[in-house]
Each structure stands twice: as C-alpha cells, then as structure tokens.
Please model this.
Amino acid sequence: MRVEFCKSCGAPLQARWSDIVLQCPYCGTQNAPGEEGEPVPSSIPDDGRLRLAVGGRTYLVLGTLAQGDSSIVYRGRWVRRLGEQVVLKVLRCLSDEDLFRREWAFLERLHGSSAPGTEHFASLLPEPIAMGQVKVGDRDRMTSVFRWRSGFYLTLEQVMHAHPDGVEPGSAVWIFKRLLEILSWVHQSGVAHCAVLPPHVLVHPLDHGAMLVGWTAAAALDKDSRGEIVVLSRRWRDWYPEEARSARKGSPRVDIAMAARCVLRAAGASGFGKKGRLPGPLAELLIAGAQGKHSDPWTLREEVSRVSLDELGPPQYCPIQMPGWPSGRT
Amino acid sequence: MGYGNYSHAAHVALTKDRSGSASTEVFHQGGCHDLMNPKGVKSRESRDSEAHPESLGVIFALDVSGSMGQIPFRLATETLPEFMKAMLDAGVKDAQMMFMGIGCASGDRAPLQVGQFESTERLMDQWLTWLFLEGGGGGGNENYELAMYFASRHTELDCVQKRGRRGYLFITGDEPPNPMVSSSHVADVIGDDLEEDIPIAEIIEELQRSYEPFYLIPDFERGQNVGRAWRDLLGDRVVVMGSPDDTSYVAAGLVSILENAVPSLQSLIERFERAGMDQKMCGRIGKALTPFADSLDRDEIPKPGLKPTTTPHGDAESGLDR
Model:
C-alpha cells in the first residue's frame, strides 16, 4: 500500500500497486495509480461539489465548519496533487465587506510583526493565503482563504457546550495561559483583538493549544490610533466589558477581561463574578481580570502560574475530553 | 550507477569517526569538484540491478550557502545513516541516494553541484563530502529551481520508468523561490539551450511526475519568512522544522508516512522514541510533520464533523452592531 493522490481533486488515495483503477472517494474520478506521472488536467470535472477560485487557485469545498456573524466558514483543499488544506471564509452579509478587509490587513500586519516570538505566535493566528471576490450562491462575495491548522477547529463555545458544568481547573488554566501568551505578543505588536469571545477561541484539546481567530474587530494600539472597536457581536454583547460596549475603546485591558470571562464560563462559572470549578484564589485572579483590573497579559500569566502552583500543584497534562476525540496523548 | 550493497553498521562507523571534527575537516573542497559539475551532464541514472531490483531514487538537494551548510555537516557526521535506516524500516530496501549542492547563480562559483545515485554507504558519503560548502549566498536568492530543472530533465529513474513509482526530492533552503528557471542560468550552469525562461510552477508540474518533492526549512523563524511563498508552489509539501539538526529524521518521516510504513504520525514518533531519541527532538519532529500527516489523515487527530455545504443566498442580516 502506498499513498497516491487523485488526479482530479488531489485527495489522498490508498493504492496498491496491483490496483488497475482506483476510484477517488472524494470526487469519484477513476485513477490509474500505476500510470507514469499524473498530469493535473486543466479543467476539473464538475461533480456538483462547490469549487471556489480565489487568487489563481481552485479550492474544493469539503463542507461547512461554522457560521459566523457575517460569514460562512468552509473547510477546503487546493485542487492539485501538491495541494494544501485550507479554511475558506465567505461573506454572507455584503455590507460587512470592509470588515473582511480589516481582518486581512490586521492579520498581515501581525504576521509581519517584529515583536519577539513572531515565529511562534503567528502560527496561532489564521495564516492568510488569498482574498478575492468569488461568485458564491447568487452573488459575488468577498472570500478569504487561510491555511488549515491540524487539530485546531473546536471553538471554546463547543467545549462549553460539551462541558456544561465546566472543564477541569487544570484545563481552564492552560487555556487562559495560552490566551494570555498570544495576547501579550499581539499587544506588543500594537494590536488589540477586541472580540475575544468563545467562537473565536480555538482549542486543541489534546495538546494544550489555543488559537485566536475572528479578527474583524481588531484595532491598532499605536499613539495615533484611538483603538476604536468598530463592531460588537450582537449575540455576545453581554460578554464585552463596559468600556468596550459604551466607549467602544479597545485596549489590552479589554482583551484580558474578555479572555478571563471566556475562561471563567468555560470553568463552569454562571457569571463573570462567579468561580465555577476554580479554586478560590485562582478564581479571584480571573474575576479581577474579567473586571478589567489587569492590563499586562504576561504579568497576569505569571500570577496565574504562581497561584495555580499553590492551588493545583505542578502543571500536569490535562486534556479536555471531547466527543469523538481520544482521551489523551499516549 | 547504484551498484553495491548498503551496510548500516559501516555507515554509522564512517560518520562516527568524524564526530568532533570541524566542518572544514569533513568538507575539503575549495571549489566545485570536477565530477560534480553539472555542465554538459546528459543524465544521472538510478537503475535496477540484481542486487537492487526495486531501486528508488532519492535526492537531497542541499542549500550550501551560509548557515545552511550546517545540514550537510550534520548529515556527514551523524544523521545520514539514521535516514537510511528509516528508509530500510519503511520497507525501502533499494534506496539510491544522490546529493546536490545549491548556491546562487548570480554570484557563487558553484551554483549547482550534482553527485550520482549511489547504493553503498562509501559512495553516498563520498559525494556528500565532495560538496563544496561555498557559504557565500551570492547576490540573490539561491537557485533552487536549477536543482528542480536538473532533477526533471537530467535524471532517469527505473522506479518511475519501470514501476510508475516516484522517487523523492528533498530540497533544504531558507530563501524564497525565484519565479522562473532562467534560460541564461541553465545555459551557464548546465549547458542546455532553452528558448525561453520556464515559470517555476511549470518546472514543479514536470518535476512531480517523477518525484515526490519536499522543501525543508530549517527553523520557525525562516519558515515565517519564506514558508508562504513556497507553499504557494508546493502546498503541504513545505515542511518547517524546529531545528536543522532534524533534517534526516524529518525526511525519513516523510518517506515513512508516504510509503505507508507507519500507520500514523504518532506511531512514527513512538518508533523514534524507542530508538532513543530525546523527547524534545521527538516533539519538534512531530510538530514539523503534522501538517503533511494531516493532509493524508495520518495525524491521528479526529477530523471535524463537517455540515453539508450550503451556499449563502442574498444579503444576510449582519450579526454585528456598528
């Protein structure tokens, strides 16, 4: 057995060399795996599946991952033998096109950041590949293409849904620490996220990993900028601190407050002033963060480490149990 | 070429003898070795033989400029036998290895060096250590596309011609791709007379008919600088490593995954652990290989339960308040 690739859609095929013809389970194309070379045909056979051409590449849409406030998000694959797995974000609400451009500009800025740690932290944001107008459904719609990251697709909202009584305190600690680490670098890069909400936090339940997506509301923190929050998510309005809701002012304090609120609720707290499953001193630290009393993510991260060491003992591997996922790394 | 047998034990002994040596003690060349000059070379051949009935051509095309010279040094002093062992473990009994050196055609004395496909540890080692580590970097990007061009048009592999089975091409580098294979560079360096420049995407399309190409970047920082430009050409075949020390293990892992020698990335890493690799290195290699393993569903990470594709219609109401 050897891995071959469909000549039409680029999907991996499990081919024995004795196979004469192999049908692709993705697009149904008949492949001859023993053939010398497999030039990619210039036209892709139409199997009825959605294909989107953006930035000179054609992507096969594999299915819907999520629906956002103004977008629909697909998983896709660059249709080519040497292809690439991607996420495609397509605009649903046409008047929000400026926000797509805004997100793109901030992601490009962050990927080009000169702040220390960019080579690591940039991998925890969506990596822009291409953006363009594409006919989807009945309209031309702005579409952004990002690189797919293995294992990063569960939102904190899904985690909260799977754990209505809250995740383990140890898991809450690593989620919070990961968010604070990313935010520290983001703020050093002169940017505030301004929408750290459960659907924008992706967690890797086995690897203690977190990513921050949904950058349409991001704001610049430089001296000349007001750090204005241009949009608020109606559905999550109550999760924004007051200064974000009324003054529409983004800041490191706002990002930390929203991250702390996310983690408190993920730990089972019924409100942003409640402790959920967290031990008292740790909960107090998060509640203070949620109330806007911290403005330096790295300092808070150090405090979280210190208090969790006292309360929970040395850091341990603490995967989050999610349906369909293994219980941990062996 | 490609006659003779491979001995892993002899290969380990050969590299071990050099541990502690300086790079200049291992690589003596002060210019391109006459036998590695590609000018006028018609073809490098990887052929089946009685001893090697199922030859598989493997090329390491190594950027030898500046700090990239670390990779050939580590291969020659420690890690090449590990790559060969992983090939054997992956069921590739008749690997034939060729080395290329890549520099800059605008300023280097040896912009492309080309060895021969070899099966024995002595000859593999000979071509590797005949590489001239020029170290300059010339006046532009390294000309990786010349190595691709040479592999596409100046190699002949029995694995492809007799069995329709591609060889492997691992390019190490840290510079972005050049957009074209320049006809003047090809004329100067290889001696072919091309009517016009060849777009790099075209030469990659040609290359992937005979080889499984991979571009290996030595660390995350350089991955951040050049990864996207290479992914636009090679997709998930661009591998960003945690350290240049990991090159031969990462390449071995890619072969093992693609040859189905391991059921998953996790089992590959367990194999490395059992062989005594330290946990930190295992972690780095696992991270480097994850995107490619994921592209083949070999990362042992559950895939998202996708909802059917629905396309948006009309102008939906925004869920955002301005």
Summary: Chain A touches chain B through 77 residues (CB under 8 Å). The mean pLDDT of chain A is 90. The longest strand of chain A covers residues 57-67.
